[in-house]
């Protein structure tokens, strides 16, 4: 295998954006699990496996669309992506994205009608986020895409188990939407130069890196504090407040270049703790 072939493989693997993909998969798992935990229905492991595959394919559909329409931004902010480097042409990439979306819908048929509807809504959301004429990506509140996509994944998981939501299941989904719509503004930090040149409005391009970082820090802190609406023992408060302060401090450290990755790692630790508390694995 030549060095160029190795470079292509690495480029395509990195472009799967597994860290972000994992967040959507985790949301589907939460929905699937809480669909069972807060109901009288039995677990269905087939719908778990099929759902995770479907959500992964939906995410890759969103990635491909984002790459196609963000080409000018990526030439500055993400020059190593396969489409930017010319490893795949536009026509093939469009065909791949259509196949990914189509396969995810097809899989949804075998989960449940409601789950399939939420998968379709996720696909539509991915399109209006990246593609013209809507292209929500260019507006300052574009991170609502991540909050909405996370909530859609969660509800697709729930409806793989139950036909009707309980109030607690609904509340968790609403909090997921709110938290991930706010906290994920940090993802725009690394795309600052490309977004600025392309005229994309984010808190960083609108207010500058310094002020934008302060605004993002506030939203990040609120995001990490939201779980206290679900769990609020004194020890929960201490742990969650500590996590919130830690993530803000790390995001503001100038010597940390991979701010988004650090934030996502702490986010996963945070939601794991919340999950274990909600199902009483951790009890006080």
Strand-helix topology:
Elements: H1 3-14, H2 18-37, H3 45-69, H4 71-77, H5 90-109, H6 113-130, H7 144-158, H8 167-183, H9 192-198, H10 203-225, H11 234-252, H12 259-278
Helix pairs in contact: 2-3, 2-7, 2-12, 3-5, 3-6, 4-9, 5-6, 6-7, 7-8, 8-10, 10-11, 11-12
General description of the model:
This protein is mainly α. The protein has one domain (3-278): UbiA prenyltransferase (Tetracycline Repressor, domain 2, Orthogonal Bundle). The protein contains twelve helices and no strands. It has helices at 3-14, 18-37, 45-69, 71-77, 90-109, 113-130, 144-158, 167-183, 192-198, 203-225, 234-252, 259-278. Helix 3 packs parallel to helix 6 (113-130) and helix 11 packs antiparallel against helix 12 (259-278). The longest helix is centred in the N-terminal third of the chain and has 25 residues, at 45-69.
């Amino acid at each position: 295998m030549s060095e160029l072939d190795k470079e292509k493989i690495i480029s395509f693997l990195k472009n799967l954006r597994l860290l972000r993909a994992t967040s959507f998969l985790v949301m589907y798992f939460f929905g699937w699990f809480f669909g069972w935990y807060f109901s009288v229905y039995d677990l269905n492991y087939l719908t778990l496996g099929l759902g995770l595959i479907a959500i992964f394919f939906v995410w890759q559909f969103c990635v491909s669309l984002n790459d196609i329409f963000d080409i000018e931004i990526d030439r500055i902010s993400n020059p190593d992506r396969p489409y930017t480097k010319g490893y795949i042409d536009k026509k093939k990439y469009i065909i791949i994205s259509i196949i990914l979306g189509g396969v995810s819908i097809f899989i949804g048929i075998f989960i449940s009608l409601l789950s399939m509807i939420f998968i379709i809504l996720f696909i539509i959301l991915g399109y209006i986020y990246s593609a013209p004429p809507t292209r929500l990506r260019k507006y300052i509140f574009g991170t609502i895409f991540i909050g909405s996509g996370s909530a859609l994944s969660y509800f697709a998981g729930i409806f793989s188990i139950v036909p009707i939501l309980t109030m607690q299941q609904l509340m968790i989904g609403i909090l997921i939407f709110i938290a991930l719509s706010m906290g994920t503004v940090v993802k725009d930090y690394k795309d600052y130069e490309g977004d600025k040149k392309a005229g994309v409005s984010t808190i960083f391009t609108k207010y500058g890196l310094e002020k934008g970082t302060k605004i993002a820090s506030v939203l990040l802190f609120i995001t990490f504090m939201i779980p206290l609406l679900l769990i609020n023992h004194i020890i929960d408060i201490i742990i969650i407040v500590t996590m919130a302060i830690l993530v803000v401090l790390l995001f503001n450290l100038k010597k940390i270049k991979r701010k988004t990755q650090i934030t996502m790692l702490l986010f996963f630790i945070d939601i794991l703790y919340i999950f274990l508390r909600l199902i009483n694995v951790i009890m006080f």
